[in-house]
Write a structure and sequence with these properties.
Distance between the termini: 80 Å
Shape: globular
Radius of gyration: 22 Å
Largest sheet: 11 strands, mixed
Order of helices and strands: HEHEHEHEHEHEHHEHEHEEHHEHH
Strand content: 15-25%
Low-confidence stretches: 1-23
């Protein structure tokens, strides 16, 4: 009987050890980039390391809200992709953890600048300029002029032909809102958003949804990051990409480790791997046309040429701050979203 007890005890210990080892080989991955890229990143990391990856894809604003809601009992380990502003807000609110990757010396200065502005609680993984795209066939069928500027989108002939995401759920749309504040000043910027509201046919949850709808012929003009419009054009849809004449804002897509992550070692492994040139080159397999942050990674020849686009001096620190982001979103809710269309 004593031998049996010892054997049972040893078996129990072995089971506990095995369970612990299995737990150590897991990663819960929150992704805010395009769905096919998210899947490829998860599968490629799993293949490279043997670590079992559970991936959830949501837009930047939705992921930020989820991480905040789970802060007392974090369920995610790493958040990859999406606009940098909510990553900066998450850092400010203590929702993400400081980490200094040994890969930093391989990155462009703008990626490091993003990290330093957040106390090294996030880092830049790609960049992309804001703009819009339109379905050339629908534009012609409706006898509409070709838009070239932001303010063109306010013309009455575009009523019902413009689509953008909701800035509460979408990092793309929040970047649009913040861009107008910096391009035109707050008063004129909100006048622009009110005028645009008159022409918007739908506010989507996802930032890339408006240009996907345009590609399918369900919408004429979609306000998106230009690389998302390029993806539709390269896929064979009649989408034309516009860099607005007044100038435009841009994103630094970011990555953060969630504070209190259950699988911290695995999160750091993913973080380092995702900053490598090899991991960032995976973007080319899914027609993701952002500019990668690793200096050795490849940028597609189809990607928008950032040097040829008039970019504003986007104030990431201000517009990524918790107070400013909350204030602007509340003002948009109170003064823009409630207006008739």
């Amino acid at each position: 009987m004593t031998s049996l007890k010892i054997l049972c005890g040893a078996s129990a210990l072995a089971l506990v050890a095995a369970a612990g080892a299995a737990q150590a080989d897991k990663l819960t991955f929150y992704c805010s980039a395009q769905e096919d890229w998210c899947q490829l990143m998860a599968n490629s990391f799993q293949d490279a390391t043997g670590i079992d990856v559970a991936m959830t894809r949501k837009s930047s604003g939705e992921t930020f809200a989820q991480i905040k809601a789970e802060s007392a009992n974090p369920k995610g380990d790493v958040w990859w992709g999406g606009t940098g502003d909510p990553h900066l807000q998450a850092a400010e609110e203590g929702l993400t953890a400081e980490y200094l990757s040994p890969m930093r010396d391989q990155l462009h200065p703008w990626a490091i600048s993003q990290a330093e502005s957040a106390g090294n609680k996030t880092i830049g993984i790609y960049s992309g300029a804001l703009g819009y795209g339109y379905n050339a066939d629908l534009l012609a069928a409706n006898n509409l002029p070709e838009p070239a500027c932001w303010k063109d989108l306010l013309k009455p002939e575009y009523k019902g032909h413009v689509q953008m995401a909701n800035p509460n759920s979408s990092g793309t749309a929040y970047t649009t809102l913040a861009t107008m504040m910096q391009l035109f000043g707050e008063d004129e910027g909100f006048d622009f958003m009110k005028g645009l509201h008159t022409n918007v046919n739908q506010y989507t949850k996802s930032g890339s949804a408006p240009i996907k709808a345009a590609g399918r012929g369900e919408n004429t003009i979609g306000i998106v990051f230009m690389h998302d419009a390029v993806k539709q054009a390269v896929s064979g849809f009649p989408v034309k990409v516009v860099a607005p004449c007044e100038g435009t804002g841009y994103e630094i897509g970011s990555m953060s480790i969630i504070d209190g992550a259950r699988n911290m070692d695995e999160a750091k492994k993913f973080y380092d791997w995702a900053l490598s040139a090899e991991a960032q080159n995976l973007a080319l397999q899914v027609n993701a046309f952002q500019v990668p942050s690793n200096k050795g990674a490849e940028t597609s020849a189809s990607a928008p040429d950032m040097s040829q686009i008039t970019l504003i001096d986007y104030d990431f620190k201000k517009y990524g701050s918790s107070d400013e982001r909350k204030r602007l979103l509340k003002k948009w809710d109170d003064e823009v979203s409630v207006l008739p269309q």
